[in-house]
């Protein structure tokens, strides 16, 4: 059994746990930042599906499928292009949301330039 002298302390503790932080008078929250879509890179391959990529570049060198992502890799000796495809919604066809490009030695290159080089074959 709880002693009577502890009851006010327990009641105060329970009430204190329910309280939130009250902002100061005149406080205005900072403005919301830009939407996440504002940070997405734009490019000629974004939004393309695997069929469109295969049509542009031929058979991929690698086709890696995981639970939520598919990675297609295309290469021609001058550059290597990795396209990452995610489904925009349940039951929808995965599309390119990110592209990386590099030389065979590993130095970064412009994805658009690499795509053009891959099309030239």
TrEMBL record:
Signal peptide as annotated in the record: 1-16
Keyword terms, alphabetized: Signal
Protein name: Uncharacterized protein
């Amino acid at each position: 059994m709880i002693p009577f002298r502890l009851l006010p302390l327990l009641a105060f503790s329970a009430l204190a746990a329910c309280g939130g932080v009250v902002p100061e008078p005149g406080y205005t929250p900072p403005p919301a930042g830009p939407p996440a879509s504002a940070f997405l890179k734009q490019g000629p391959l974004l939004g393309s599906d695997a069929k469109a990529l295969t049509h542009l570049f031929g058979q991929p060198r690698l086709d890696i499928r995981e639970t939520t992502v598919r990675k297609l890799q295309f290469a021609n000796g001058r550059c290597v292009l990795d396209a990452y495809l995610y489904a925009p919604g349940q039951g929808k066809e995965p599309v390119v949301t990110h592209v990386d490009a590099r030389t065979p030695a590993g130095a970064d290159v412009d994805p658009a330039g690499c795509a053009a080089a891959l099309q030239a074959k």
